[in-house]
């Protein structure tokens, strides 16, 4: 199982989206030997908590892309752990993490200096002033403080937001240019670490309340 997977030391990308049985204990085993892990998708893994983020901060310090969509047990303490140990992080999605507050942005500002893309959709405990203050550090961000809709369906691979609410508006947006990173083998495009997450120009179906990249929505 996870223990045998973790022994493949050269693994750089793992997608565990919607794995309902994955737990912190499993992630402890999995992360122990994955020193080169670069990309991890834990979206909608409902049992994942701050403990997993602790293991990542200790064992997977080279990670550049982390997706925590719908991980409701994650809080500021977990983001603080990531910020202290995963200093190469470029892309973070905490959409639907309702226990993450403004404090998390302060931790990211202090520890994740290379963070370029941050998604905070349905982050009900993060305020607009805090986002506005942190936004200049980023190349792209998305934020709203709405309650997650029934059947929360944020599809990471397509960069698309679906909702039980009536869709009001269709917009087009351009992702930020790929971020180059230095390494032992020279520079590489950040686009390679996210694959389909950064896909040039993406058509997005969004609600009226959704923030366009790099901007804050006006209050109604």
From TrEMBL:
SUPFAM superfamilies from the UniProt entry: RNI-like
PANTHER family listed in its UniProt record: PARTNER OF PAIRED, ISOFORM B, PARTNER OF PAIRED, ISOFORM B-RELATED
GO CC annotation terms, alphabetical: SCF ubiquitin ligase complex
Gene Ontology biological process terms from the UniProt entry: SCF-dependent proteasomal ubiquitin-dependent protein catabolic process
Transmembrane segments: none
Origin: domain of life: Eukaryota
A family per Pfam: DUF7885
Residue span(s) of domain F-box/LRR-repeat protein 15-like leucin rich repeat: 11-134
Name by which UniProt lists this protein: F-box/LRR-repeat protein 13-like
Organism: Thamnophis sirtalis
């Amino acid at each position: 199982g996870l223990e045998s997977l973790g022994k493949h030391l050269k693994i750089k990308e793992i997608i565990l989206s919607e794995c309902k049985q994955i737990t912190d204990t499993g992630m402890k085993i999995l992360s122990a030997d994955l020193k080169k892990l670069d990309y991890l998708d834990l979206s909608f893994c409902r049992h994942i908590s701050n403990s997993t983020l602790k293991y990542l901060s200790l064992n997977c310090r080279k990670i550049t892309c982390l997706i925590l969509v719908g991980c409701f047990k994650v809080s500021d303490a977990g983001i603080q752990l990531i910020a202290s140990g995963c200093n190469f992080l470029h892309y973070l999605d905490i959409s639907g993490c309702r226990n993450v507050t403004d404090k998390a942005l302060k931790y990211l500002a202090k520890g994740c200096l290379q963070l370029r893309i941050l998604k905070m959709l349905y982050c009900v405990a993060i305020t607009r002033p805090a986002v506005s203050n942190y936004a200049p550090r980023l190349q792209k961000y998305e934020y709203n403080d709405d309650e997650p809709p029934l059947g929360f369906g944020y599809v990471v691979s397509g960069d698309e937001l679906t909702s039980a609410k009536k869709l009001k508006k269709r917009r087009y947006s351009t992702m930020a240019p790929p971020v180059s990173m230095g390494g032992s083998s020279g520079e590489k495009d950040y686009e390679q670490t996210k694959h389909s997450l950064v896909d040039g120009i993406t058509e997005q179906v969004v609600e009226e309340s959704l923030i366009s990249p790099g901007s804050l929505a006006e209050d109604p």
